[in-house]
Protein 1
Amino acid sequence: MSDPNRETETEMKARSGRNLAIAIGLFAFVVIVFVVTIIHLRSNVAVPHS
Amino acid sequence: MSMAQAADRSHAPARWQDFIQLLKPRVMSLVVFTALTGLVCADRPLNPVLAAVAILCIAVGAGASGALNMWYDADIDAKMRRTRGRPVPAGRVQGADALALGVVLSMFSVMLMGMALNWFAAALLAFTIFFYAVVYTIWLKRWTAQNIVIGGLAGALPPVIGWAAATGSAPLNAWLLCAIIFFWTPPHFWALSLYTREDYAEAGVPMMPVVAGAAATRRQILIYSLLLIPLCLAPAFTGLGGPVYLGVAGAGGLMFLLLAVRLLRSHAGETPDARKDGLYDVRAGARDARNLFAFSILYLALIFATLLGEHLVGAAPLTPLLR
C-alpha cells in the first residue's frame, strides 16, 4: 500500500520549480545590491588632485 | 499531514508560473511603460543600471500590489468570469501564500528603491502600494461607485515615481503625467464595466453601471473624457511635449471624444447578458463601449510613447516655460 503522504511526481516537480524560482530571485537580489553598492562607491570616490 | 494540507491535495500544486500570475504581468507592463516615461522625461543623466533598478523596483512594487489585491479579492474574483481563473480563486495558490508574496515583494522593492535611488521615490512607491492594496482594494472597491476614480491614483503615480527616482523631486510636469492617467482611468474602466456589468453586480462590487445605471455611466464617461483631453494637450504647453506630441494628443483626443459621444448616444450596458461563459463577448448594443475601452488603451499608450520618443531623440519642447 502506497504512503498517502508521499509527494506525487507532479507535486515534486512543482516544488522544485518554486524552489528554483526563489533561488534565482534571491541570487538576482544579491547581485543587484552588489552592483548598486559598487556604483555608489565609485561615484563617491574622491578623484585625487594632480 | 494536516487537514488543510490534505484538502490542498484536491487541487493542482502551485507552480512558479502561478506566482508570476499573482503579480498581474499585463498591468505591470503598463506600469513599467508609464514609469519609464516619467524617468526619461525628467531629462536627468542617470546611470543606466540605476535606471533599470528603479524600473524593476516599480514593476515589483506593482506586482506586489497585484498579489495583495488577489489575496483580498479572492471571494469576488471567484464570481466574475474575467477573474475566476486567477490562481487563488482557482485553488492553485493559497490566499496566505499570495499575502506573503505581496508583503515580501513590497518590502524588497521599497527598500531597494531607497538604497539604490532615493528615499523620496521609495516613499512614493510605498504610498502607491498602500493606496492600491488598502485604500482601493480593502476600502473603496466594495464601498463606493467612486472606487476606480479615487483608486485610480495608484495607477497614476508610477510616472511620478519614475521622475522622482531620477531627480529626487516631483515637479509640476510629473504630476501632469499623473493627472492624465488619473482622468483617463474612469472612462477606461467604466467603458469596460458597461459590458461586464452583470459580473460586477453578481460579485457585489458597486461599479458605476451597477449603482447609477448605464445612462448615468455613459454621461460620466463623456464628462471625464472632456476633462481628459485638455489635460492630454497640456504637456505641449508646459515644456514637456513637442509638436509631434501635440499632433498625436490632439488627433487622438478628438477620436476619444467622438467615441465617447457615440457611446453616450448608444444603449450600451442596458441589455442584460444571457451568456455566462463567453469572456468579453460583446453584444451589438455594447460595441460602442468596447470600442472606447480598446481605444482608451491605444490612446494612453500613444501619448506616453510619443513623449518617450521625443525625449529619447531630444526633440525640443514647444514652450519650455515650466522646466
Protein 2
Amino acid sequence: MSVLVFIDHIDGHIKKASLEAASYGAQIAAQSGTDAEAVVLGNPGGLSELGRQGIRKVHQVQGDQLSVIDAQVYAKVLEQVATQTGATVIVFSNNSTGKTVAPRLSVRLKAGLVSGAVALPETGSGFVVRKNVFSGKAFANVSVTTPVKIIALNPNAFTVTDADGTAEVVAFNATVDAPKVKVTGSTKTSGKVALTEADVVVSAGRGLKGPENWKMVEDLADVLGAALACSRPVADAHWRPHNEHVGQTGVAIAPNLYIAIGISGAIQHLAGVNRSKTIVVINKDPEAPFFKAADYGIVGDAFEVVPKLLDAVKKVKGVS
Amino acid sequence: MKILVCISKTPDTTAKIAFADNNTKFAEAGVQWIINPYDEWYALVRAIELKEADAGSSIHLVTVGGADAEPIIRKALALGGDEAIRINADPADPYQVASQIADIAKAGGYDLVLTGKETIDYNNGSVGGMLAELLDMPYVALATSLQIAGTTATVKREIEGGEETLEASLPLVVSCQKGMAEARIPNMRGIMAARTKPLKVVEPAATEALTQVAAFGLPPAKAGVKLVSPDNVEELVRMLHEEARVI
C-alpha cells in the first residue's frame, strides 16, 4: 500500500493532530512493508522532523494562493499529488481542515472515505476501518471497496510515535487555482489550548452557579495545561462562550483526562465526552448519572473540592 | 435567493443504541426519530432567518429516505420550509447521498445550499463537502455564522483554537453548527400549513456507494467509578498521577 498523509499546520507549526495522522499513516505503510509519504501545502517549520513519526518523504506545494484553506483549491492540488505519487491510502486528521477537504478529494478520486477513524485498518480480507458512530456511543467497522481509500483519523485517537529519523522534503509543482473564498479576519479563543487537541480538559456546569465562579476552574486548567469546556446549559445561558460547549450538539472531544465539575452528565453531554480515556467527576449529587460513566469520582461540593484539588495538583506538578 | 436545506432523519438524542441482524443494522424498534439537530437548529433555522430578512427568498428541502422519512420532512416544512423533495432511496453512504442530492441541486439552480455539520448517528460530516465538489461550488464547513449581502456571503468557521471569517460569492455550500441560529419550535399555524405544502417524491438516480458498514459494535463497559472522599483529594491526584498516568 502506498500511503500519503496530509499535513495540516497553523501559525507556522504542524498541528498535533497531523503528527498523529503521520504516525498512523506510517504504521499502515509498515504493515505492508512500505514507507509513508506526506504532503504539505505551505511552509511550516519542522517538516524534516516528520521522520520521527516514520515519514520518509514530504511533498511540499507552495504558493500564496494556498494561504487560505479553500477546500476546492486544496482538493485539486491533493488530487495531483495523490495521482502522481500513486497513493492508495490517503490519511487526514479529522480536524477542521480534514473535514473541509477530505470529502471533496473523495469525490475527485472516487475514493471511499472513512471520517472519524479510531483504529488502524484491518486488511486481512478487504479494507475495514473502525470509526465512531452515534456520537461515540457505538462504533462501526466500515468496509471501503474502492481502489483508493481515504481515512480521516479522529484527533487524540492515535498516539504520536517518536523515533529517530529524518524526512526528505521535495518540492512538488502543482497547478494551483485562485481561491474563491478569502479570509477577512480571525480570532483566537480565549483558552491557551485548542479544545479538540487538548490532552486534558477541565469542564464545568450549572453546579458552579454563575459565571463569576469560573476563576477556580481556570486556575485548575492553567496548572494542568488544560483546555476549558462547559456543558450546554452554561453556554446557552451565556456564562461561557459557545465554542467551549462539549456534548452531542457542541464539540466532541477525546482527551486523556476529562474533569467534569458540577455537571450531572445528561446523555447528550456524555455523547461529546465519552471517548475521553479517563473521566473524573466532581458532583455533590451522588445520584448524578455522570458517575456511571466516570473512572474516578468525588461526591462533594465543587466550591470545597476544586480549591483542594488545585493545591494537590500544584504539589504533584511542583508548582507553588 | 433560492436556498436548499438538506435534511436527515436521525434517532432522538436519548435513543437506546442497540444493533440487530447480527450487528449489521441499527435496532429501530421503539426509537423516536427526529430531524438531525444540526440540520434543524442551525441549517434550517438560519435559512428561515435569511428568508425573514429577504422576503423574496424561498426555502427548499431535500431528504434521501423512504416513506418513513415523511414525518420528518413535514416537520421541517412546519418550521418554515416552502416545499420539499424526498428522494426515494435508503441512505447507503455519504457519497451515495451526496450524489442523489447533487442531481436535485443541479436542476434547482440554488444560490445557497445548507447542511448540518454532521448527522448525530453516523457522525461523518461528509455530505456537504461531497455535494460542493459534485456541484463545483465553494464550500465552508463548520460554520458558526452566515450573513448574506447581495451575492456575497460572510461566514465564520471554526478552526483549531479559534474562528476565521471568510467571504465568498454565491452559489455556495455551507455546513452549519452551533452559533448559527437559535432553535425554534413549530407553531400550530406552521403545522397546519405544512400539510398542504408541496412534497414531491422522486425516484433515485443510479448511484453507487463507496463504503459500507460491515458491522456495528458497542464499546466495552467502564469498570466502574472509584470514589474518593472529598477530604482526601490528594489520593485522587495520586491515582491520576500513578495509576491512570494522566497528570
Protein 3
Amino acid sequence: MTKEETKELERIAQRIRLGIIRSVSAAGSGHPGGSLSVADIMATLYFKVMRVDPENPKWPDRDKFVMSKGHAAPALYATLAEAGFIPREELLTLRKFGSRLQGHPSMNHVPGVEMSTGSLGQGLSAANGMALAAKLDKRPTRVYVIIGDGEAQEGQVWEASMTSVHQKLDNLMVFLDYNGLQIDGSVVDVKSFTDPAARWRAFGWHVLEIDGHDVQAIHSACEEAKATSGRPTLAVAHTVKGKGVSFMENVADWHGKAPSKEQAEEAIKHIEALLDSAL
Amino acid sequence: MTDVPQKTATRAAYGKALVRLGEENPDVVVLDADLSKSTKTDGFAKRFPERFFQMGIAEADMMGTAAGLAASGKIPFASTFAIFASGRAFDQVRQTAGYGKLNVKIGASHGGITVGEDGASHQSIEDLALMRVIPGMTVIVPADAIETEQAVFAAACHEGPVYIRTGRSPVPVLFNESYEFEIGKAATVRDGKDVTIIACGIMVSKSLEAAEILAEKGISARVLNMATIKPIHVDAVVKAAKETGAIVTAEEHSIIGGLGSAVCEVTGAMCPVPVERIGIRDVFGQSGTPDELMKEYSLTADDIAQAAVRAIERIGT
C-alpha cells in the first residue's frame, strides 16, 4: 500500500468517525465507543479490501461484511454512507421513527447490510453460512466479520468458531475488536477474557495480532488471510474504545451514550482539524 | 403412494421428502445438529454430502448458519428436535430467520409428548406457541406421511421462514396421492353438523376416531385438519363455528399458545361459540410410552369425544 493510499484510508476513517459522532449526537442515543474503535478496520475493509458495488449492492460475487457487534451500527452506517450505499445526510436519521437506520442493523432496511444483528454472538454463525454458500457456488466471495471482545462471552461465538474451522472456511476473516471494555467495565473484570489469540489458536484458527488503528497492519492482515488456505483467520485487533475522541477514549461509560451537543461539537472540531491538517 | 405402509412416522416422511426435494432443487441444503439418524436427514446426507452440513450439538449456531445460507440464496432445512429448534435456538430463529425474513426452513422432529421415554426435557409442548408468536413465521404440523412430504415441498416454495413439526411415533396414513396440501388452508377430513373438531398432527387421526365414537351416540362431528397453525385458516374456523355451533381443538401441545389458542383468537373475535381445548394442561410431561402419556394427559379419542359432548352442551348457555 502506498503512502498516499494509507493517508487516504486514514482520512476515510476520520470521516467515518465524523459520521458516528454526528449520527449518534443527532439520535441522542447509541453506541459511540465501540463504533469509534472499529472505524479504521471499516475504512480499510470497504475502501481497500472488499469487492462491493454500492450501485449493485446484491451483486452475487461481492464480498460480504457482518457487524456481529450490532450496536456498532453507527460505524457500519457511516461506512456505508462514505461508500455510497446510502446518502450521507441520512446518517442524521439514525434511530429516528421511520428511518432505515434502525438502532441495530437491519438487512431488510439498509442496502449493504448483509445480516440483521444486535443480539450478540450471532454474526459469526451467519457469516459461516455465507462462506459455506460461496464455496458451494464456487464464488470468489470473501466474508468479513467484526466481533466485540465482550461479545465473545456469548457461547454461540465459540460454537460458530468451531464450525468455521470444521468447515475449513478460508474465505472467512474475523476481526476481534479487542478494546478491553464493555458496558459494566473492563472485560477482564466483568468476566475474565485473556489472551484471545491463544483461545482462537486452540480452536484451530489462523490468528494474528495487530494494531487495530493501523490501516497498513489491517490491510496486511487481510492479505495474509487471503493467502491462508484450509482454515479461517482471526485478527485480534488491539483497539481503543472511543478512539479519536479524546474524552471518550478508554472510558467504558461511552459504550452506550450519546455526547451532549457541546461534546459532539468539540469532537467534530477536533476530527475536522485532523482532516484539514496534513493527515 | 401404494407402497406407503399403513403407519409411518412423519419424521420419516420428512427425511424422504428432503431427498426428493434435493433432486429437484439444487439450492436446497440440509443442516443437522448430531441427530441426523433421528430426524431422518441421514438420507439426504448420504445422497447429497456436499449439501449437508453437520453442525454438531450446537443448535443456536445451526440456526444462524442456516440464516447465512438463506441470505446467500440457499434454501436451508435446519433439522433437530422440536424442543431444541424452538427453545434452545429461539433467539437465533427470532433474530435472524424471523427479523431478517430469511428463507430458513426449520424441520422440527420429535414434537409433542409422544417423544415418550425421553421424558419432559425432550417433550416439546411449547414449540407451536414460541414459533407462532414470531412475526412472519409460518407454522405447519402435518397429520401424516403424505401431508408431511407435501408440506416440505410447499415450504421450499414459500418465501420466508417456515417451522414444520413432525413426530417420532408412527401414525396412520390418512391421505392418498390425490390430497393437495396448501399452506394456510384447512382440510375437512370428515364432514358433520353438530360440532367441529379442529386438530393438527397426530391428533387428526385421534379426532377421526373420536368422530366415530360420537357417531355411535348420534352426534355428527366435522373434523378439520388444521395443518397450518399460522397463518390459521380463519374462514374455515368461522364457517365451522357458524355451521356447527361448537368447536373442540385437539393438539399434542400445551393448551396455551398453540392451535387451541389460535382457534379461540378467531372465534373470540369473530364468532364466539363454545370451544373445548384438548392439549397438555399447563404441566410438564414425564417418561412413558406414547400411549401411556396420551392417556395420562387426556389426549385420547375418548377425551376428544367427551370434550365434543361438553362443547355441544355449552351451546346457548
Protein 4
Amino acid sequence: MHQEIILAGTGGQGIQSAGQVLAQVALEQGLDVSEVSQYSPEVRGGWVLSTVVVSDRRVGSPIVQMADCLLLMSQRAADDNKGRVRPGGLVLVNSSLVELPPIPEARVVAVPATEMAVELGVQQIANMVMLGAYCKCAGTLDIVYFDQALQTVLPERHHRHIPLNLQAVQAGVEVVIASGE
Amino acid sequence: MAQTTQTEALPSHEEAVYRRPAALTETQMRYCPGCTHGTAHRLIAEVLDELELTDRTVAIATVGCSVYAYEYFNTDSVQAAHGRGPAVATGIKRTSPDSIVFTYQGDGDLAAIGLSEVIHSAQRGECITVLFLNNAVFGMTRGQMAPTTLVGQRTTTTPQGRDPKLEGTPMMICEMLSGIPGVAYLARETMIDPKTVADARRSIKKAFQAQADGAGFSLVELVSSCPAWWHKSPLESLHWIRDEMLTQYPLKVFVDYKRQD
Amino acid sequence: MMTGNVATAEGAIAAGCRYFFGYPITPQNDIPRYMSEQLPQIGGVYLQAESELASINLVYGAASTGAYVMTSSSSPGISLMQEGLSYLLGAELPAVVVNMVRGGPGLGNIAPAQSDYWLSTRGAGHGDFGCLTFTPDSVQELYDCTYDAFEIGHKYRLPVMILGDAMIANMSEATRLRERREPPTQMPEWAVGGRRNGRPRRVVNSLWTDVPVMEAVNLRIAERFRQAAQEQTRWEEYGDDRPDILFTAYGISARICKTAIDRLADEGLRARLLRPITVRPFPTDPFARWAGQVERIVCVEHSMGQFIEDVRLSVDCRPVELISRTGGVLMTPEEVIARTRELIAS
C-alpha cells in the first residue's frame, strides 16, 4: 500500500491540522508516513498545502508531483492544484466553496463540507468532514483511528472538541455513502 | 622568580606597602611606555583581590592592544572575537552564574565593531562588568580613527584632523547607556594623577560589587592615553587627557549602584 | 509524529543540552520556539540574541564553560556565524550548530536548498578548518544526529554542524525518542568558570602569534579530526546489490532518490543509493568500493554542483554525472527518473 495525498486550501481552513491528523491516523494503523505543510508568505489568508505520503514500506520522497488523491478546500486551491492528480486518481472537492469542471480520468467526488460543518455547529470542522469522505472513498485508512489520532495531534486545550470532530468525520463518511459513490 | 626572592629577603620588621596583586600574573606586559593600560590592569587586579573575587573570575580579553590580557590577569580567561566580548561574557555568566565575568575592551572593540553587543548586554541588565578603555584611537592597528576620536584630532586615517561633516562626532558611550534601566553602575574616570587613579579604583570596585550583588550591568569608561599614536611623550599625553579629552568626555558617575542591604 | 525542527530541538534536550542561543530566521523558527518553552522548565537557559553574531558568541562563551550548548539558524544567519565558528574551532571548543538551509545566495528565499554544502564543509570560517558535519535525511535521523552531536563534539573538541534544509526541518514523521539524559556533571579539564579551590588558571584562546605553536595547535586539531573520521564516518546504502547505476545524494535529495530507485527497479533498471550521513568526514571508502562496479555514477543535489566535488574526489577518477536544481526548486522523483533516462539515452 502506498498513497500520496495533497490537501490544498486557504489559511484558516485547518489544512495543516487535517494533514497531521490524517498522518497520525496512518501511523496509528501501523503505516509509515511523512507529512509536509507549505504555505504562502502572508500570515493570514494565503494558500496552504499539506502533502501526506502513507506507505506500508519506509516512505521515500515526501515530495509529490502528482498525487493519488487531491482534497481541494477552496476555489483558489482548486484552480492552482486541480492538475496534480494521477490518471485514475481521486479528487475530493469542497463543493460548498468550489466550482470545479470535471477532471477527465479522475474520480471527482463533491462534498459540501463547509455547509455540513456549519450544520454541525462549527465551520472550522469542514476539514474533518473532508477527511471522513476521503477515508470512505479511498478505503485505505480506517476511521476508528481518528479518536486516538486527534488526541495525539490536538493540543490538550482542544480535546473537548474531539467528539464534535469525530461527528464531522462520520458525517463525511455518510455523505459519500448517501451519494452512492 | 626574582620578585619572590626579593619578598623573602625583606626584613621582618618592615611592612611591604606595594606588591604585585595576586590577580596579576608575573608575565611582563607588552604595553608601550606611558600607556595607561598597565594602571588599569593593576586597579582591576587590586579590586578583585580586595573583594576576594579572583578565584571566581573569568576575564574576557578582546581585540586591540589588550588582546593579551589573558596572559596578565591571574584568573580563568577567554579570548573573544573583535567586539563580541559582552556576548561571550553573557554566555559564560548564563551557564556559570556564580562566576564573576568582566570584559576589557578598547574603543575600537566596544564603540565600533562591538557597539551592538554592549548595548544589548546593558539592555538585558546582564550581570557582567565592562572595562572600557577610551584613548580615542585604534592603537594596535597603527593609529587609525576610532568612533571616540576628537573633532580635529589627527590620526593615520584622518590626516587633516577628524571632520564632523565627513566622519561625524565622538561617540559618547556612557551618555548612550545612561538611560538603560538594566545598568546598575556606570561611570567615566581617568588615571592621570593620584586623585583620579583613586577615583577610578573606587568606581571599578563599585562596578564589580554591583555584579557580585547581582544588581545588573556595570561599566566603567577609563579615559586613557596612547603616547605612541598621539605622537606625544607620556607626560604630554596625560596633559592632553586633562586639557582635551576631558573636555569632550567629562568625568562623571552616571548611575550609582546602591546596595540593597 | 513531530517536525524536523522539533525533533532537532528535542534531540538536543535529550542529549543533555540545556543552553540555547539564537536569532529568528525562517525556516528554523520552531527550534527556538520549542527551546524557549522547554529549557526554562528543566533548569536550562534560552536567550534570544540581538543578531547571529551575538548568538554564536554567546555559544562560544557557554562552550568555554564546558556546557552542552547549541544554536540554530538558516543560510544567511550561518554566514554571519562563520567568524564565531572559526573561533570555536581555534579555541578547541565543542558546540552544535544547526543550519536548515534555504535558497540563496543573498536573501534568497525560504524554500529548501542544499547550497550551503561548501559553507559547511569548506568555508565555515577562516583558517585551516574542519567542523564535523552531519546530513540527516529524515526526522528520526535529525533527532538521532543531534542527540549524538554533543558527545561527539566533546570527544573530539570540535564544533558539529547539523546540515538540514527547509523541507526536512518542517516535515512531520514518526520519531522514536530516547530517554532525556541529564547534562554532564563532570566539567572537562579545559573548562573555565573561575579557578575554584586554587586550581591553576585556565585560558580559552585562539591567538597564537608564535607561529610554530599555531602550527602545533592546528596539527593537534587535525589529528582529532582524523580520529573522528576513523570512528564517526557514517553512510547508508539502499537499493540493488548488483547495480548498473550508483546514485549518490544526501539529505532531502536522498529521500527523493530512494523513491526514484524503487520506481526504476519496477522498470527493470538496477540502481543503488550511496548516502553520506556525515559529509565531513566524507565516507570515501564505500565510494571507492562501488566506483569500479557500476556503469555510471549520478550525483543528485539541490545546488549547482557542490557535493559532487567530494564525490569526484572519492571515485578514483571515474566520471560522475550531475542532476541538480537550484534556488529552492525541489525535484520530484519523476524528474530524477526522467533526467536519469536522458543521461542513459545520451
